[in-house]
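Exam review. A common question shows you a sequence with its structure tokens and asks you to describe the fold in words. Practice with the pair below. Do the first one on your own.
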Amino acid sequence: MKLIKLFVCSLCFFANLALAETDASGEETIGLLRATLSVSDMEKSLLFYRDILGFTVRSVSPYNAPNLRRMFHVPEGVVPEFALLDASPEQPRALGLVYAPGVVIDRKANMHYAPAIVFNTNSLDLIHKRMLAQNVEVLQAPAPLLDFTGKAIGREAAYYDPDGARIVLFEVSK
């Protein structure tokens, strides 16, 4: 398997490229393995992703791997902390958080230029209430989610995480 690294602002996506011999059809495939974010405060970020969005923390520990240091521009002498979060039992290790003292996260730049992370949920109203209770900045309150023809297919909402990354929630109608 081949690892593809895509770098955008403070957001780093890891995608796992499965070669043709792993696909019965003979076609090359690609799947998103994990989104990993640089964060300015691990506790605030865990509060947001664990307590508000409902991720389960798999682990939080120091992680001084050379590749992580390079990707997230960790200064010499600083040991980064790495958290792995599960979205569900079917989606383990779906989100990574990297905190390194001394690495500055430009929240304002993230709010304007960082890509959005989109999650599907069946609990939009409940999550929206938790967002409001924690004074999370709302980019868009729950509103109709339209397909490309203009037909309503559910609802969506958007928020900023503690470091300004845009978080979009979809609740697709059944």
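Now try the second one, then compare your answer with the model answer below.
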Amino acid sequence: MKLNIVYFEDNENWRYTIADIIFWSFRDTINLEIFSDFEQVEKRIIRSNRSIDLLITDLYHSDKARIAKGHDLVDFVTSKLNRPAIVITGETEQVKKTFKNYKVADVFDKGSFSEIEFVNSLAATLNISVKASLNKTESDFAIKEIDYKRNLPSGKVKILLFQNETTNKQWTKVNDLYYLGDIQLVKSRCFKVLEFAAKEGVNLVVLPELSIPEALVSDIVSWSKGRHEMIIVAGSHYKHEAEGAFAKCPIIHNGNFVLTEKINPSPNELSAVGKNGLQRGKEIVYFKNTFIGSFFVLICSDNLKLTETRLRCLNYEPDFIVVPAFQKDSSDYFTGMSDTVNNSHDLYYIYVNNKIENGADGRTAFFGVVNSLSVKQLTDNDITDFEPKGKLCELKEGENYCLIEADMANKRPPSKRKVGDEPNVIIETGFLSL
């Protein structure tokens, strides 16, 4: 019989984050009931005849007048129902007070939240095992590590995000999948972007999903030879094999390339006809200890919050996650990337989308943590609106590239800049005429 966890959180970002962790860690052993309204969670606990095995709750950190009410709920569950409670609060001063005055199993401060500590606490409180899917070895897809054995970069890595804009007429439908046509035009545009990157001293170039046809990969590989300090994430393409089509992203460096696959097809890539449409991928590559750091490339839907693909990759604690996308509503991705960089993982998130009418909304973005002065400077100069938190830039109408210098040794700087401190992220956006 599964255990019943009742979870209350009024902040949407935190609600999704904690639900993600619980679901993927304990999905075979628990039923998770999620509430965003305090009155509803009270009703569930007091009036329902369904059992409760654990309460996980916030203390209304966004409304200090109601903190006492949150404590009353914790006290009722632990004292009257004799069931454990775990508190997650954004009010640091409430941590010691809650531990001291209430019989809680654990208290977590959102400002220093650790996923591993939370999972271990949950497992110990309920005396259950963590789901094996959190391990790096069990799944229906493999993660292949390629260790370049380079020293981790101590300075800044320069990154170019290029947003490809096309029209519907440039795309052709074959076997329920769409392919970008006019290879010569695509090739011309691509090499203008690469030459711009080389001129700017860029270390990492990222192009959107499906923006580079397979026929152009060999040309880009040849161009990259001798450019030792540049890695190119060359969008993605559909590769036809005996089982059907698979989506693959070439990661190109110095005359060589490695393919990483898309594990989770989007709904539009699935077909009701035989081997039409896209097949589920089999392998993702972890690029470890490269000269720009360690990173994964997660193609579009592999980066959605509830995919095991994303969660397994985060367990490796990469320096970057790169997301080439073909996404109609980028907001579906922004919340998860914001949660990740702000609450639990020390990394930068790169999102590079296509732009096409009624097909992909652009909004290419870069996520990370910076100090309060950098936030003000980036928002004052209209580089970002900082919504959600951690979105350091988003391309606007009339822009198609973002040039970023990211400090790899300082991905989570102090909240205030002191004399001698440089910004850990420097951003420039603009339009590259092709």
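Model answer, second protein: The mean pLDDT is 89. The chain is about 25% helix and 30% strand. Full marks require stating both points clearly.
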